[in-house]
Amino acid sequence: MLISAGNAVVRKLFNISSNGLLEIQWYLFSAIFLLAAAYTLQKNEHIRIDLLVGKLSERGQAVVDIVGTLLFLMPVCYLLISFGWPMFIDAWNSGEMSSDAGGLVRWPVFLLIPVGFALLMAQGLSELIKRVAFLQGLIPNPAIKSNDPHKEPV
């Protein structure tokens, strides 16, 4: 926020602009979303299809989470890690720079892709283990937040 505000103030007051400052804003925005995805999944705050799944029992919801994790989350994470890592390596080895004047080196933002999706995959594995343990009756429903006043823990 400080970089964005500072860039806007400098641009308006002194008519000076920096592609590097604009790009660092994009890099930081990317970092927020890529690195926070695993945390969002851990807190069960990701976007869901509650319209359909909400009608299912807790066990049914756990099964949907397991199937979704195995069929969608894990393969997508694997593909994005697999494609993202070589992009990072190429950018690192070549010292790839932005094509804009005063632009930044590109490898840090390319590194965010495999790292972010590796974290998301690890959290997905954790959630998968918890859902299976719930179905086996070993733990309470992990999808219920302890501070949710509308649901009682199992």
UniProtKB/TrEMBL annotation:
It is found in: Cell inner membrane. It comes from the Bacteria. The chain crosses the membrane at residues 24-41, 62-85, 105-122. Residues 2-132 form the Tripartite ATP-independent periplasmic transporters DctQ component domain. Keywords: Cell inner membrane, Cell membrane, Membrane, Transmembrane, Transmembrane helix, Transport. It is a multi-pass membrane protein. Belongs to the TRAP transporter small permease family. Part of the tripartite ATP-independent periplasmic (TRAP) transport system. The complex comprises the extracytoplasmic solute receptor protein and the two transmembrane proteins. This is TRAP transporter small permease protein. It comes from Vogesella indigofera (Pseudomonas indigofera).
